[in-house]
Design a protein that fits this description.
This protein folds into four domains: 163 residues, Alpha-D-Glucose-1,6-Bisphosphate, Chain A, domain 3 (3-Layer(aba) Sandwich); 116 residues, Alpha-D-Glucose-1,6-Bisphosphate, subunit A, domain 3 (Alpha-D-Glucose-1,6-Bisphosphate, Chain A, domain 3, 3-Layer(aba) Sandwich); 124 residues, 3-Layer(aba) Sandwich (Alpha-D-Glucose-1,6-Bisphosphate, Chain A, domain 3); 83 residues, TATA-Binding Protein. The strands form five sheets. The chain has a five-stranded mixed β-sheet with strand order 1-3-2-4-5, sandwiched between helices. Strands 7-6-8-9-10 form a five-stranded mixed β-sheet, with helices on both faces. Strands 12-11-13-14 form a four-stranded mixed β-sheet, sandwiched between helices. The protein is α/β, with parallel strands linked by helices. The protein starts with a helix and ends with a helix. Bound molecules: 2-acetamido-2-deoxy-1-O-phosphono-alpha-D-glucopyranose and magnesium ion. 2-acetamido-2-deoxy-1-O-phosphono-alpha-D-glucopyranose (GN1) binds next to loops.
Length: 556
């Protein structure tokens, strides 16, 4: 790193002094916290993303300013690798180090060491870095984005491009497309969704179409960016009647009493929905539209909703994909294609039983989509979902090329109209529709909708795939959540010593009891999850485990 470069970082970092007494960690999904304290973090992640681009031959890297389902006064930042996936976990320690560097000099020294270790050069012979920056609708987003731009710009020769207000998955999709040399604008994203949706609609068997009159879908946009983007997309979609509420334009506050996180955790109606909507098919997105859950109001006697969470969306997708694979009649090898599903410890036990019953390979990963994504990528078709509604379907490159050649073969043999050809075409359309980079509520909604139309199913019928075991989640505020250390699958606590034995004794008291604790990676809390055969038991088990957490760790 030469003197001019050092001077550039020293000068710009003076603009963003680090707040006192804040310890930042890249966490489950990037840095998050009170927006007022984040400028220096975003500036520094701007530097990191420029270095990441240089490391990967000046490929485009994405920077997304969002705190997803957190309250509106929070914000956050996450990095999209050139592949469109999350930032490589190998770089997270560096992200932590520079975010916490206490002075401009320390920052420079950390960057210098890291560049040496990673053999990153900034110089005339290299092309500069390119970083695309997006943000959600939070009011703090604009000034944070400027801080990110200044961070990128402090690495000489780098270009920062402001892509504007986007959903997180849109930015990931655009970055992935750009680096694959494909059309990568927001319009291209919309066009890709509407074309592949249309294709799947056209492939619906006519008997499926007759069974169900297409009823209106109600969408809760969490007062965030997702509802606004569906509004933009709606014009180019036929066969989908959708009404969008909580777009954020009608005075509602982001994530307050609305959105996928609220509906999934509280299992009650979001603001803007009422008894007039009994029986309607409803979907809820989160603040940055990478999560999706469905729900309906079963009767007009309570606020409670019937929730169709990420597990149920995963089950619907798995069923549909399996049906298509089964139709590949004459190809034993590909019929055996490895279709696998990935869940976390938060998956409802009944969903896991159901998926295993379907004959699927079910594997578990740690919380956080980066962990699920990695495992799903090991299959020909890997479907992953967190119970909270974040997930997608990954198709391996080799499976996709097989599909392409199979489609050609069948057409050449005059079997263009065969069931097998249709199944191949459906799988190809799904791979285009569903966001291969990250979970995406927009593409998720479209896939759910077209599968329901294909099967001729109502939301109630879909809900009957299996019955959720009653569950309860609680957040416990403690002085130091890092005092909880878990096993790699997060189902057992190794520390504090003795707490797991105490939890086990509680679990034993309940039929189908299951419970675990883990420190949140996005909030300053310890999370408690419990499941049992009745809601009262799940609540009571969760409460007693929460008490244990308080007595072992103290309450704050
Ligand atoms: C129980 C739960 O819902 N945890 C969420 C939450 O992580 P925590 O580490 O539990 O705070 O936010 C993550 C990012 O959105 C998401 O991936 C994850 O599933
Ligand atoms: Mg989100």
């Amino acid at each position: 790193m030469d003197e001019i470069q050092i001077a550039s970082i020293l000068k710009s970092s003076e603009l963003f002094p680090i707040p006192q007494g804040v310890k930042l960690s890249y966490g489950t999904a990037g840095f998050r916290g009170d927006a007022k304290l984040l400028e220096s973090t975003v500036y520094r992640v701007g530097i990191l993303s420029a270095l990441r681009s240089l490391k990967l031959g000046s490929a485009t890297v994405g920077l997304m300013i969002t705190a997803s389902h957190n309250k509106v006064s929070d914000n956050g930042i996450k990095v999209s690798d050139p592949s469109g996936f999350m930032l490589s976990q190998e770089w997270e320690p560096f992200a932590d180090q520079i975010a916490n560097a206490s002075s401009p000099e320390e920052l420079v020294s950390l960057i210098r060491k890291f560049m040496e270790k990673e053999e990153i050069a900034i110089g005339e012979n290299n092309k500069g870095a390119e970083v695309w920056l997006g943000r959600d609708t939070r009011p703090s987003g604009e000034s944070l984005l400027r801080a990110g731009e200044i961070g990128v710009g402090s690495i000489l020769g780098s270009v920062a491009i402001d892509i504007g207000i986007l959903t997180t998955p849109q930015l990931h999709w655009m970055v992935r497309a750009k680096n694959k040399g494909l059309k990568a604008t927001e319009n291209d994203y919309f066009e890709n969704l509407s074309t592949s949706f249309r294709c799947l609609i056209d492939l619906i068997p006519s008997s499926g179409n007759d069974k169900l009159e297409i009823s209106k879908l109600l969408v809760d946009g969490a007062n965030g960016v997702g509802g606004q983007k569906i509004e933009e997309l709606r014009g180019s979609l036929s066969n989908l009647d959708v009404e969008i509420r909580n777009t954020g334009r009608d005075g509602g506050v982001l994530n307050e009493g609305v959105g996928a996180d609220f509906v999934q955790k509280e299992k009650v109606l979001p603001v803007g929905f009422g008894f007039k909507d009994v029986g309607m098919r409803c979907a809820s997105l989160d603040g940055d539209a990478d999560r999706l859950v469905y729900f309906y109001i079963p009767s007009d006697s309570s606020e409670k909703v019937e929730l169709l969470d990420g597990d149920k969306i995963l089950s619907l997708f798995a069923l549909f994909i399996k049906e298509q694979l089964n139709a590949l009649e004459d190809d034993e090898e590909r019929k055996q294609s490895r279709l696998g599903v990935v869940q976390t410890a938060y998956a409802n036990g009944a969903s896991t039983d159901y998926l295993k019953h379907l004959g699927l390979d079910v594997v578990f990963a740690k919380t956080g989509v980066k962990h699920l994504h990695e495992k799903a990528a090991e299959f020909d078709i890997g479907i992953y979902f967190e119970a909270n509604g974040h997930g997608t379907i990954l198709f391996s490159e080799s499976f996709l090329s097989w599909l392409v050649s199979k489609q050609k073969d069948l057409t050449a043999k005059g079997q263009g109209g065969s069931e097998e050809h249709k199944a191949v075409s459906r799988l190809m359309a799904v791979s285009n529709l569903i966001n291969q980079a990250v979970g995406d509520a927009l593409s998720g909604v479209l896939l759910v909708e077209v599968i329901l139309q294909h099967l001729g199913w109502s939301i109630e019928k879909w809900n009957e795939l299996y019955k959720d075991l009653p569950s309860r989640q609680i957040k416990v505020e403690v002085p130091d959540r890092t005092a909880v250390v878990t096993t790699s699958e997060e189902t057992e606590a190794l520390r504090p010593m003795g707490i797991q034995d105490a939890i086990n004794s509680e679990i034993k008291k309940y039929s189908r009891g299951r419970a675990f604790i883990r420190p949140s990676g996005t909030e300053d809390v310890v999370r408690v999850y419990a499941e049992a055969s009745t809601q009262e038991d799940a609540d009571s088990l969760a409460n007693s485990v929460a008490q244990l957490v308080k007595s072992f760790l103290g309450s704050s």
